[in-house]
Amino acid sequence: MKMSQEKLALLKEKKAVLEGHFILTSGRHARTYIQCARILQDPKATTQLIGELLKQMEYLDIDLVIGPATGGIILAYEAARQLEVDAIFSEREKGEMVLRRGFEIPQGARVLVMEDVVTTGGSVMEVIRQVEKSGGQVVAVGLLADRTGGKVDFKVPTYRVFSKEIKSYEPEKCPLCQRGIAAIRPGSRALK
């Protein structure tokens, strides 16, 4: 699904599209960064976008929504609120995605995984494995922004609000690094 001009305009209006030299959560480098937190600070826009996403999933029976910390927490909560089901989140502990805080996935639960932005899909794949390991069944993935333009495959139906391929590079092949341009880490792992 291509990103509509209206959605791109919303990203730009909310100053969620940044240009420069960025180190992504995946470790890859890019000229363009999508800062979904700038959209998620607006409850009305968040409610509208998640509602639009959930309309695409109307045929699904969902018992629980989960998102990886930190990017997926607000999205999972809002999706669960609209679906009238519970929301939980997974978080990293010693580098591994785990459930904490007493969160559990009931055996056989039909689970929706929500995430803000994917570049490689690594965090979402970790959450999917965690759900399956806990005895749940992932029925879909919902994304606010897909930087792969739809190329990432989670082996379940995947729904996207924004989808556009945005080139990223391994650090050793980054043309911005080769030109000596300093990189910044704007995301949730910026303090590491």
Automatic annotation (TrEMBL):
<keyword id="KW-0328">Glycosyltransferase</keyword>
<feature type="binding site" description="in other chain">
    <location>
        <begin position="115"/>
        <end position="123"/>
    </location>
    <ligand>
        <name>5-phospho-alpha-D-ribose 1-diphosphate</name>
    </ligand>
</feature>
<dbReference type="Pfam" id="PF00156">
    <property type="entry name" value="Pribosyltran"/>
</dbReference>
<dbReference type="InterPro" id="IPR023031">
    <property type="entry name" value="OPRT"/>
</dbReference>
<dbReference type="GO" id="GO:0000287">
    <property type="term" value="F:magnesium ion binding"/>
</dbReference>
<dbReference type="GO" id="GO:0004588">
    <property type="term" value="F:orotate phosphoribosyltransferase activity"/>
</dbReference>
<comment type="function">
    <text>Catalyzes the transfer of a ribosyl phosphate group from 5-phosphoribose 1-diphosphate to orotate, leading to the formation of orotidine monophosphate (OMP).</text>
</comment>
<comment type="similarity">
    <text>Belongs to the purine/pyrimidine phosphoribosyltransferase family. PyrE subfamily.</text>
</comment>
<comment type="subunit">
    <text>Homodimer.</text>
</comment>
<comment type="pathway">
    <text>Pyrimidine metabolism; UMP biosynthesis via de novo pathway; UMP from orotate: step 1/2.</text>
</comment>
<feature type="domain" description="Phosphoribosyltransferase">
    <location>
        <begin position="45"/>
        <end position="165"/>
    </location>
</feature>
<keyword id="KW-0665">Pyrimidine biosynthesis</keyword>
<protein>
    <recommendedName>
        <fullName>Orotate phosphoribosyltransferase</fullName>
        <ecNumber>2.4.2.10</ecNumber>
    </recommendedName>
</protein>
<dbReference type="GO" id="GO:0044205">
    <property type="term" value="P:'de novo' UMP biosynthetic process"/>
</dbReference>
<dbReference type="GO" id="GO:0019856">
    <property type="term" value="P:pyrimidine nucleobase biosynthetic process"/>
</dbReference>
<feature type="binding site">
    <location>
        <position position="147"/>
    </location>
    <ligand>
        <name>orotate</name>
    </ligand>
</feature>
<feature type="binding site">
    <location>
        <position position="119"/>
    </location>
    <ligand>
        <name>orotate</name>
    </ligand>
</feature>
<dbReference type="InterPro" id="IPR000836">
    <property type="entry name" value="PRTase_dom"/>
</dbReference>
<dbReference type="InterPro" id="IPR006273">
    <property type="entry name" value="Orotate_PRibTrfase_bac"/>
</dbReference>
<keyword id="KW-0808">Transferase</keyword>
<dbReference type="InterPro" id="IPR029057">
    <property type="entry name" value="PRTase-like"/>
</dbReference>
<keyword id="KW-0460">Magnesium</keyword>
